[in-house]
Design brief:
The chain contains 2 helices and 8 strands. By secondary structure, it is mainly beta. The protein has one domain. The chain is elongated, with a radius of gyration of 21 Å. The model has no long low-confidence stretch (mean pLDDT about 90).
């Protein structure tokens, strides 16, 4: 019986292989939100060069436009295939209103890597989670 099973598997070429999900990286993106509460409208856009490196990411929020610093952009995973935006009203004493950007690399089964950025209404940008 073992011999028959072995022969069946050996002669059936797809038996030892399974489909594998691959990362489709983001070349260019633009996210727009009319906002919630006191956030006002939010627009986030960016693009990569031909080598897969993000070249620019701009955030329009709180009536201002901010281009992210290249030192922050360089830390975003080259294979990021997800971008999320969220908002926190916040307290003025700790920066006030804040937009969060989440860049992630993941699959249907799990997120493998993520970088969370915060941008407060003064324009201060920092990496919250890497």
């Amino acid at each position: 019986m073992k011999f028959v099973l072995f022969c069946a598997l050996a002669l059936w070429p797809e038996a030892g292989f399974t489909s594998k999900e691959g990362v489709l990286t983001i070349q260019k993106f633009r996210l727009e939100s009319s906002g919630i509460g006191t956030s006002g409208p939010v627009v986030v856009e960016g693009h990569r060069d031909d080598k897969g490196k993000f070249q620019s990411i701009r955030v329009q929020a709180f009536g201002k436009t901010l281009a992210l610093d290249t030192s922050i952009i360089a830390q975003i995973n080259d294979q990021a295939n997800g971008v999320q935006i969220s908002y926190e009203h916040g307290y003025r004493s700790v920066g006030g209103r804040t937009i969060y950007l989440v860049f992630s690399k993941g699959f249907t089964s799990e997120v493998k890597a993520k970088l969370v950025l915060s941008i407060d209404e003064s324009g201060k940008t920092e990496i919250v989670k890497h």
